[in-house]
């Protein structure tokens, strides 16, 4: 199954991705699918991401995107500079200016960082989601289940405050649901349609837990879509 179909994408979208649990992988899998559909795709960040591999893009720009028209079926990487091996992104205003140029069909933005952790709470200054965003994807890694908060969470001090938990508590469905619903949680500053991606459902246990969360969210009136998936293998449950 293709991710772009599950996301219900329209002809043109600005998609911001937040959370943990495989944001960058999700970003580039989606970009590659759209490139194969002959779309012009921009991949960028409002924070920082590891510089991508050469096979993951067709164009790579630092600084300004002036006098440039991408070919159909291409991925363009855009950032301001490279710092400590990471691509530092443009401001939200710069991204909005790029949208106005109308040279890309899809703009995909990694809008916060997680230090490789599967689950996180946002800091005071994040995420950075441009106003032009049409969909916000919040990612949580199901491999965080039954792991201690102080071992598995990025920004645990914010996390325990948001979820009313303790450092020694282990991640369960109720804690994840608190993170999703809290205004300072996973979907803080979200714009457009909310899509929750419960990722890394790599075995029966994780897929079961993902569906448990989905059912509880629907019961509680979550206003958005919920996908249970193992993005690397493109399996959805």
Automatic annotation (TrEMBL):
A Pfam family of this chain: YqeC
Official protein name in the record: Probable selenium-dependent hydroxylase accessory protein YqeC
Species annotation: Tepidimicrobium xylanilyticum
Lineage: superkingdom: Bacteria
InterPro entries assigned to the protein according to its UniProt record, in alphabetical order: YqeC
């Amino acid at each position: 199954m293709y991710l772009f179909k599950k996301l219900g994408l329209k002809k043109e979208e600005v998609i911001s991705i937040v959370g943990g649990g495989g944001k960058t992988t999700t970003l580039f899998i989606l970009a590659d699918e759209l490139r194969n559909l002959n779309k012009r795709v921009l991949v960028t960040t409002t924070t920082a991401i590891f510089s991508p591999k050469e096979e993951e893009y067709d164009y790579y720009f630092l600084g300004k995107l002036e006098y440039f028209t991408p070919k159909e079926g291409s991925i363009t990487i855009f950032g301001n500079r490279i710092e400590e091996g990471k691509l530092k992104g443009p401001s939200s205003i710069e991204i909005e200016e790029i949208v106005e140029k109308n040279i890309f069909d899809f703009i995909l933005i990694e809008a916060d960082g997680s230090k490789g952790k599967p689950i996180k709470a946002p800091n005071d200054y994040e995420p950075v989601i441009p106003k032009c965003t049409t969909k916000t994807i919040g990612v949580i890694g199901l491999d965080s289940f039954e792991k201690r908060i102080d071992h598995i969470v990025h920004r645990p001090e914010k996390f325990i405050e948001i979820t009313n938990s303790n450092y020694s508590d282990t991640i369960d469905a109720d804690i994840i649901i608190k993170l999703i619903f809290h205004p300072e949680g996973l979907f803080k500053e979200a714009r457009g349609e909310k899509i929750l991606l419960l990722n890394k459902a790599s075995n029966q246990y994780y897929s079961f837990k993902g569906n448990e969360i989905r059912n509880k969210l629907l019961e509680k009136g979550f206003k958005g879509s919920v996908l249970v998936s193992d993005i690397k293998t493109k399996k959805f449950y």
